[in-house]
Amino acid sequence: MHGVGLDVRSRLLRLLRICVVAFVVAGCNGGTVDRHALKNDAATLDSVACEGALLAGDVARGRTTTYFAREQAEVLRIESSNFADALSRRKALPSIERQVREKAKHAAVLAVTLQRLHDHPSDHAVGAAVASTLKKLGSCT
Predict the structure, then answer these.
(1) CB within 8 Å of 34: residues ≥ 6 apart
(2) By residue range, what is the domain housing residue 26?
(3) Full-model pTM
(4) Which of 42, 64, 66, 125 pairs with 3 at a CA distance of 20 to 30 A?
(5) pLDDT tens digits, residue range 68-90?
(6) Number of domains into which the chain is organized
(7) Under the phi-then-psi rule, with left for phi > 0, alpha for psi from -120 to 50, and beta for the rest, what region is 62?
(8) Angle between helix 2-28 and 66-89 (nearest 10)
């Protein structure tokens, strides 16, 4: 019974995180992207990539459960996908528009990579490959 409570708590935390991310990204959609916003979005995407790299590394070494890896990869994928969508659509200062659209593409690649981890949450080889890719995408140390 104790394990069931943790499962419900885990699902509620995941749902809460998805809602918070959706709220933040939706709130950001209203304004023009300036240098400050782009810098913050880039830092968040780096953080998502590095968190995903840690998760993928755990998958590669068999140090996490399949369920957790699948669900966490999905949360991170949704977050990066939301950024990809927002950065590809939002108005941007003309001087940084190209950089904003490039960051949207970067976020989309991040989302596709995290989807691969979601689809193969117990595959050690996929975990290792995804970890390597995400470390590069996030400039992780």
Answers:
(1) 93, 96
(2) 2-138
(3) 0.80
(4) 125
(5) 999 999 999 999 999 999 999 99
(6) 1
(7) left
(8) 10
